[in-house]
Write a structure and sequence with these properties.
The chain has helices at 7-17, 25-54, 63-88, 138-143; strands spanning 21-24, 89-92, 105-110, 115-121, 132-134, 151-156, 159-168. It is α/β, with parallel strands linked by helices. The longest helix is centred in the first third of the chain and has 30 residues, at 25-54. The protein starts with 6 loop residues before the first helix and ends with a strand.
């Protein structure tokens, strides 16, 4: 006998095995907006689609019905995942220290004069192109705990990049 699939139990196990979920206030609000979107708009529509396509009869032969059921399952899985994440989230407060930490806004300058500006965030929100650097990334981990005026070296395939910390806010 096969045990039934229980998404919530699987999600709890996955989240228990991982570290805390660090998100900024904006990241938490984004998750909450997505949850409201799913619950208020997408789920009712998916339920209606399943009901409507189910009226056609023969469930095993109806591609539309199977697609509607698959969409409903995906939405329910997303809903469960977001709810479980919101239970364990730890909000990253904006930094106000002279030491780089999660939530810090950091201004770096490379030896070639290029300036980079990053917000230190958790891995789930990291997007270096948008200026969000994970504290677990190679550069982010070297920056943690550093102060204005310090330098760090980062080895990259093309050589070594030296970063000068110009400002922390």
């Amino acid at each position: 006998m096969q045990l039934p699939f229980r998404p919530k139990q699987i999600m709890k196990q996955l989240l228990k095995d991982e570290e805390p979920l660090y998100l900024t206030k904006e990241g938490i609000e984004k998750l909450e907006r997505r949850l409201r979107q799913i619950e208020d708009i997408e789920l009712p529509q998916a339920v209606e689609d399943v009901r409507r396509t189910g009226e056609f009869g023969d469930f095993s032969e109806s591609a539309e019905y199977q697609e509607a059921k698959g969409r409903l399952r995906r939405l329910l899985d997303q809903q469960t995942t977001i709810k479980e994440k919101l239970k364990i989230v730890i909000e990253i407060e904006p930094g106000s220290s002279d030491v780089i930490q999660m939530g810090s806004h950091v201004v770096l300058r490379q030896d070639n004069g290029v300036q980079r500006i990053y917000d230190m965030v958790g891995p789930q929100e990291a997007d270096p192109v948008k200026g969000k650097l994970s504290f677990k990334s190679p550069l982010g981990s070297k920056l943690m705990g550093r102060r204005v005026g310090e330098e760090i070296e980062l080895s990259v395939p093309s050589g070594v990049i030296v970063y000068h910390i110009e400002d922390i806010s």
